[in-house]
Design a protein that fits this description.
This protein has a single domain, classed as lipopolysaccharide transport protein A fold (Sandwich), CATH 2.60.450. The protein has strands at about 1-5, 10-15, 20-25, 30-45, 45-60, 65-75, 80-90, 95-105, 110-120, 125. The chain is about 0% helix and about 70% strand. About 25% of the residues are buried. The chain is mostly beta strands.
């Protein structure tokens, strides 16, 4: 499964491998629900982050995914690793919101917080209050 940038059919935004999926369509747009997901998040047409989750809901109209159930992410850019109960990815805003016992580990640091906001490549982060 892939999301492509409108008007540029070769520029991928999100790519996922999903063994089990369900989809529905409504006025709000298509909603996909996926179990045991392994996906790649893209920034400016380049793969930046691998994300694994027990469940993902993807809303293409909003260019947003909700990942839950043991979310793990790994930055291909800088090797930063993230674990959280849930992650919301806002593709158009190039922003991840990680919530629930967030743990972030880099080469020279480790961070625990209830909520953290990051860019798609896990390079820039800000600790926030839920």
């Amino acid at each position: 499964m892939k999301w492509l940038e409108p008007g540029t059919p070769s520029q991928v935004i999100w790519e996922a491998s999903v063994p089990r999926a369900a989809a529905e369509s409504s006025r709000a747009g298509a909603l996909g629900t996926f179990e045991n997901v392994q996906c790649v998040l893209y920034q400016n047409g380049k793969p930046t982050t691998d994300l694994h989750a027990g469940r993902v809901q993807a809303i293409q109209e909003q260019w947003r995914i909700y990942a839950s159930r043991g979310v793990r992410a790994y930055s291909r850019v800088n090797g930063v690793q993230l674990q959280a109960r849930e992650v919301i990815w806002l593709a158009r805003q190039n922003r991840l919101i990680a919530r629930g016992d967030v743990q972030i580990t880099g080469k020279q640091f480790s961070l625990r917080a209830p909520q953290v906001e990051l860019d798609t490549a896990l390079q820039v982060m800000r600790v926030t209050s839920p």
